[in-house]
Amino acid sequence: MASAISVQPGRIRVLKKGSWRPSDQTVGPVIYWMFRDQRLRDNWALIHAVNLANRTNAPVAVVFNLFDQFLGAKARQLGFMLKGLRQLHQQIESLQIPFFLLQGDAKDTIPNFITECGASHLVTDFSPLREIRSCKDEVVKRTSDSLTIHEVDAHNVVPMR
């Protein structure tokens, strides 16, 4: 997926500066961990992930983690979200970008997924919720020092950071 749009630098926050360098011979995929911004269009985090993948000549993939207890959501809300994710999956795969749906505690599933696929970069969208920030902090701690992690404010008109 080519992207001619660049992301405003004020939207991007480096959570972890990995040791991977452009001179490295093998480049793992760029993974976009989607959470708050469950959309394909006008998604600054996805655009940033695609730009990183293009710059490093690496594949890009999208992963969504479904928590066992999804922030107090009820069956109706989860059904609505899953229907939207099904549509999103079809849209993303039509662009030949793999989409992975994980289930469980993201503190475990995301680092495991990153390790299994040998990712070089992880991009995620910004969330102001304390639980999500705590989860991201734990993911940063549990991933390899070679992994670069960026958080992109894809939701707010004026970036919060």
Automatic annotation (TrEMBL):
Residues 28-160 form the Photolyase/cryptochrome alpha/beta domain. The keyword Lyase applies. It holds the Pfam family DNA_photolyase. GO terms for molecular function: deoxyribodipyrimidine photo-lyase activity. The keyword Nucleotide-binding does not apply. It comes from the Eukaryota. InterPro entries: Crypto/Photolyase_N_sf, DNA_photolyase_N, Photolyase_Class-2, Rossmann-like_a/b/a_fold. One of its GO terms (biological process) is photoreactive repair. Keywords: Lyase. This is Deoxyribodipyrimidine photo-lyase. The lineage of its organism: Eukaryota, Viridiplantae, Streptophyta, Embryophyta, Tracheophyta.
